[in-house]
Amino acid sequence: MLNIAKPTIRYYEEIGLALKVSRDKNNIRMFSDDDVMRLRTIQCMRGSGMSIEDVRHYIELSTIEEEGIQERYSIILHQEDILMQKKRELEEQIAFIEHKKQRYAEQLQGERHSGPASWQAE
To answer: 7's torsion region: left (phi>0), alpha (psi -120 to 50) or beta?
Structure first.
């Protein structure tokens, strides 16, 4: 479903990020749609680099309905900016690696043998 380890869910419950979920007769957690959405939100925010305390604040804002919407929106915009910067950095790194891959492939095929490696030549 979300691919979150049991100890992580337990930790989120212990620190109050995730609500304690109900359990069936075999003591297996029974997640509601709201539980799943909350865990997905936590997982996404943590994956985007947000600290536990910032995630906690974001979730607390969701409990105050309309008063928290503007701040939650600002938080989402900020996280989007962070992720877009990471995306640009990753795209630059991928372009660099693809360039290197192409250069090495050419050299291995004998199309371009430049002698000893030169950082500027590559």
So the answer is: alpha
